[in-house]
Amino acid sequence: MCGICGIVDRRGRLEPIAVMNGVQQHRGPDDGGFLLADSSTGAWRLAAGPDTMPELNLPPIGAVGTAGADLVLGSRRLAILDLSAAGHMPMSYQDGALWLVFNGEIYNYIELRQELAAAGHTFASGSDTEVIMAAYAEWGVDCLSHFNGMFAFALWDGRRRRLFCGRDRFGIKPFYYHNQDGFFVFASEIKTLLHHPAVPREPNDRAIFDYLSLGQSDHTEQTFFQGIFALPAAHFLLLDLATGQIDIRRWWEAVINPTVHDGTGRDKPERYEQYAHLLEDGIRLRLRSDVPVGSCLSGGLDSSSVVTLANRLLLEEQVIPASLVGDHQKTFTARNREADIDEYQYSHLIVERTGAEENLVFPDPDLLWREIESFVWHLDEPVDSTSQYPQWNVMRLARQRGVTVLLDGQGGDETLAGYYAYYPPYLSQIRQELGLPAAIQAGWIASRVGGSPVRGVILDHLTNQLPWRLQQGVRRLLPPQGIPGGGGSGLKEWQLAPEFLKRFADRRWQPFTGVDESGLAGLLYRDLTTTNLPKLLRYEDRNSMAFSLEARLPFLDYRLVEMVFQLPLNYRLRDGWSKWILRRSMDGLLPPEICWRRSKLGFPTPELGWLKAGVGQIRDLLTRHDGGPIHCYLGRDVLRQIRDQGDDDLVATPGLWRIFNLILWHDIYFNRSPQAAFQALSQRQAVEIFA
Which residue spans within 509-601 are E strands per DSSP? Predict the structure, then answer.
């Protein structure tokens, strides 16, 4: 796990690489380094940064200089596998013909190394980094399909004079770039790119509109910054330095089974066995580490499954040395002081069942408002709600307790239909395929098993099909069900500037997956690849890397995802139960209170209470920016109207968090210099102040 960056420039504007690499110090505090290359002659030289391992005896980047080079690669290393200097990056292969900077983990690197060794390749380290280059030497760009992992990398092929950049199937690891007129620059984080003076620093109004009006972010290759793009998940990029041409191609896509069931009416027990085996094997691979490992635990079905299976692998099979685990697996849980949204009764059941070491944190709203600027700076782009802050606290706690790798349950909801909102499209599909009586029966069973939240979402869906006036009457009698403590996040049309609305009047949700989204399988694939999971992965990456910690996600093992999407939908939703195949696979291993739990909270926070704790800062920010450039997005009098309310009405304003987050983000990234923001808000200072 690392931070990577690089510059390709025929005009030789490579000097900012040292500063850019330093901005990502939190992603890799253990080591750093640089490669400078002349693409036309093949000449190269290495240089050290301030944290480069001294045994490498490399000259500092300032002494080496960038003259004569047109390509430079930088790396910050968080050492996870092979902690020695042999894992240093940029790493070379084939006597300097190939060079790599790499962020992530290739979990099946041991098996690949054995296969490549049998084909004649040799290795000088025990790292997965070297395996990537050997795989490229053997299979070319097709090496990507051999990797089981999370990754974003840039590989310089000096013989072909091309830069090969790849990103994993789901975009777990980030890769951002700017490209213009022979100038190409990339990095793991957007804030890093902004430290190159040739990179524009302008907001992307289209992304801001999608965030404020459509409630979407991270759903296209565009970012909140004009001219800065994300390499899409499951894509690779080839930059030909001889011609300056860039070629971006998709390299992976799941095959989808769109049917409700397979037509036989018979259950197939072997499918549950296969799923359980793949999940456990995905966890087994993700436990490979040379540093201490722990697990996130919320008390929900996904994280409870991960902790339970990991516990057996760690303590019974001892898949990694006991010194990296301790006497008990370490779990990390964020709690709420509000009883109706606290899941401790469930997380503690898993602790009791497994004997794990329990580590708890209560996110403090006062601390949130003390470190809010650092939080916003680290996330790079605006976030949906305060629900990302508990994860920030969990990552900090894990690092404080000496853990460097954390397993997490992210991805289970998007693959296994874990959200209540999936019931209406599922019932609609049953009606289309099996008829109205079957849909009514399935809806009745679902509402009985799932309780009031499921009944509420089904009724709300049905109400939306009625004429508007009837909708209002139904909702007065049967108000929509909500999650306690969730808070509001959507903006109303009156809150947006008329000219802003007019500019994007035709902006509507566009399908980006290339699959039929009319059925539930297509909707799940869209949420997995476009609408939901990508932004959650950004939050996970930035929250973990802010504290120099690696998060690993077993539910996104591609073998598991491919299997689930090839199954009929009734292995996800059945007899009113979501995540059917997971529940059946874990039945008997998990406490029944969790395995067959009806309620689901997600990641709720007492958002209204937290906003009230920061009401003074919110009002001050609105006052300072009233009349500023933010008015090109928000109505002329909106900030004043919000600001002049009493505290209770102010914090209840629809979309208040989005408005506040956008303004603070805009202030940090466009009103301050990148250097000033880095010096004031880097996590090195935040840890010292708030730990």
Answer: 550-552
